[in-house]
Amino acid sequence: MIENKNESTQHLLVTRNLTIRDYDRIAEIMAVSYHLMHDVWSKSQIKKLLKLFPEGQIGVEDHGEIVAFALSLVVDYKKFGDNHTFQKITGNETFDTHNPNGDVLYAIEVCVDPEYRGMRLGRRLYDARKELCEQLNLRSIIAGGRMPNYHKYSDDLKPKDYIQKVRTKEIYDPVLYFQISNDFHVKKILHNYLPGDKASRNYAVLVEWNNIYYEESEDPIRVRKSYARIGVVQWQLRAVRSVESFFDNVEFFVDAVSGYKADFLVFPELFNAPLMAEFNESDTAQAIRKLANYTEQIREKIVEFAVSYNINIIAGSMPVYENERLYNVAYLCRRDGTFEAQYKIHPTPAERGDWGMSGGDKIHVFDTDVAKIGILICYDVEFPELSRIMAEKGMEILIVPFATDMQNGYQRVRVCSQARAIENECYVAISGSVGNLPKVKNMDIQFGQSAVFSPSDFAFPQNAVVAEGTPNTENTIIADVDLDDLRELHMHGSVRNLLDRRKDLYEVKLKKKECLKNN
């Protein structure tokens, strides 16, 4: 043991990698910590670990002497699965299971000198492990944790009931409580994981910490960027002489925003409404159906713009008439030349009554070269179930093209969009039209203020507004959003709206599985 230091002497704690010179202290700490059930690691075992995986063997020293340490391996976890034992995962403690090309950092030991307990040295070791897991781009940290206090309650509680009471702090278990406090979640209860652990009644808890920055090395598409640049158009509805004139207006904004090397450009709902003036003599239902004749041509042109200007374009929304039904459809036009569609799920009462518009029945999460995105057209954002389903499928940015005539309608879209950003821990970009179209019924006046919203936590703007345009004036906004901040928020935020949902009490789910497409 380290001799007691004079009370006036300060600790000098340093976290570092172990060396073989630390072995005597490692053995000494293990001897006083595990004298009832765990043999001390031999010097040859520690030497082999240091040779196989030196960066995974971590210690905390005080004035040059080790007072806590952690040992680990990298394993190809699919070869073992969740039903392994400690002997199997360590190759009967030969560590031949270590695989530098594996996907999981497997924790095989954490030990703290009893005289240093209460100083949160275990947390230092786990923080160092997490940093290593991220640096090596490993999927997670997994460990088999003892339940050393379970023997006190085993006559009355099953292991799962004991774990639940530890979670709710009705029972204290030093190992399991520590793991839960360090953001590990329980994967499985194991039996005979570590034979001879009488205090745990031969049970163990398989726990996992997920690396939110992990990138699939086999991903053929890309390595994701850590941020996205979003350009949002606050679109002036103006009379146009022809579809070519309309394209000139569109290309002006594509050119301007792509010049800032934006990843996304967002146009508003029904942004092609000026072309409906041509059909002003028709009744409104017929006029919008005639407008739908332009949709395919416009979509093809915007795909061309996306490729030539190297920017992903969300083409607001446009009417689509198919199978004798009218829909309101937003298109994602990728810069690789592909496109996909999101149909508006909830037509407003006016859209149904004046235009005879129908709602779509599929919810998409779109993959792009930067982030996973979802699209909800105007009224759809006022239904929180839709974005929650998207969030569960990994959506990072929600796009909301809208068209509102009065300020109260705009406020519904804005407030609901801000709520969606907070509750789903994602960014939300809203794009609306401004100005007047005197000769276009149902689209004759617009109120709008485009914006990009964020979750509300320390890493984000104080008012959770990344950027916003000037109300009722044609302009663009450019906003950079940090995707890593979202991943950090999911696991470590002040509040964790996604993680803390009471799935034992409620859930949101689709009635038809085919209604969801994860693109």
Automatic annotation (TrEMBL):
Keywords, alphabetical: Hydrolase
Highest taxon in the source lineage: Bacteria
Residues in coiled coil: none
InterPro entries in alphabetical order: Acyl_CoA_acyltransferase, C-N_Hydrolase, C-N_Hydrolase_sf, GNAT_dom, UPF0012_CS
Signal peptide span: none
Location of the N-acetyltransferase domain: 13-212
Family per record: Belongs to the carbon-nitrogen hydrolase superfamily. NIT1/NIT2 family.
Residue span(s) of domain CN hydrolase: 228-483
UniProt xrefs under SUPFAM superfamilies: Acyl-CoA N-acyltransferases (Nat), Carbon-nitrogen hydrolase
Protein name: Bifunctional GNAT family N-acetyltransferase/carbon-nitrogen hydrolase family protein
Molecular function per GO: acyltransferase activity, transferring groups other than amino-acyl groups; hydrolase activity
